[in-house]
Amino acid sequence: MKIVILGNGISGITAARHIRKRSDDDITVISDETDLFFSRTALMYIYMGHMRFRDTQPYEPWFWEKNRIGLLRARIERIDFQQKTLFTAQGEGIAYDKLLLATGSRSNKFGWPGQDLEGVHGLYHYQDMEAMERHSAGLERAIVVGGGLIGVEMAEMFHSRGIAVTFLVREPDFWNIVLPPEESAMVSRHLREHHVDLRLGTERKEILPDAFGKKCGGGNQYRRNDCLRVCRPHRRRQPEYRFFEKHHP
Ligand SMILES: Cc1cc2nc3c(=O)[nH]c(=O)nc-3n(C[C@H](O)[C@H](O)[C@H](O)COP(=O)(O)OP(=O)(O)OC[C@H]3O[C@@H](n4cnc5c(N)ncnc54)[C@H](O)[C@@H]3O)c2cc1C
Prior knowledge:
By secondary structure, the protein is of the alpha/beta class. It is built from six helices and 14 strands. It has a four-stranded parallel beta sheet. A hairpin with a 4-residue loop joins β4 and β5.
């Protein structure tokens, strides 16, 4: 039997290992992200220089051949479930008897104006971390939108490079869907002690492209109860952010 697993994250790879333990089936794992499985949770440590990419790969390169787990780097664009065939972005067909979808997740975007501008990224895939790396050179201020686990990781990542961080959190308290008020306050205090410009109760309104010839230079221009525009002084064409403060922190 030919088993195809779409996604080489922890779910896909765990499935592949268990299927191999119990059967002699033909196994192929497909992913468009990286050639080899790596630990997504360690992305921040690569950026911060604590680990090399290869240190985040739990299995040695020989593991896959030894265990007869085929790996294919490809983007799957379409699946014909009747014909049991996957189609890559290049139009190549890959037949399967059984298909496991382990395609994971991706960063949320909600149709905000400017969300697809260069320099606006989530952090989920390896390529997002590469984009952060690319945009970090010469960057003086980064804005992190979203006060959860990934947001605070991104704040720490930029902070580790000496890049000033403005951190927008919609809720009145940090990560209050998870943390009790005392702990939420402790994290907020800790962030501010490390000079993170934490703005609770603040939502982004839009992200504006930087117009050529428009001077962004001075950093923040801030008016209470109005919008805040933040320029990212960067060599490349940079977006400009505008957001509302619901509460003044
Ligand atoms: C920065 C960060 C830190 C995290 N920290 C923690 C933590 O501390 N603790 C914790 O429990 N969880 C953490 N998580 C969440 C955890 O990493 C995920 O829940 C987990 O990686 C999901 O694994 P998965 O195998 O389901 O999917 P994924 O790891 O997303 O793997 C799916 C793969 O499928 C590929 N794929 C999807 N669609 C296609 C397609 N059409 N064609 C080809 N390939 C495709 C994707 O590119 C991806 O490589 C963190 C996540 C991030 C981003």
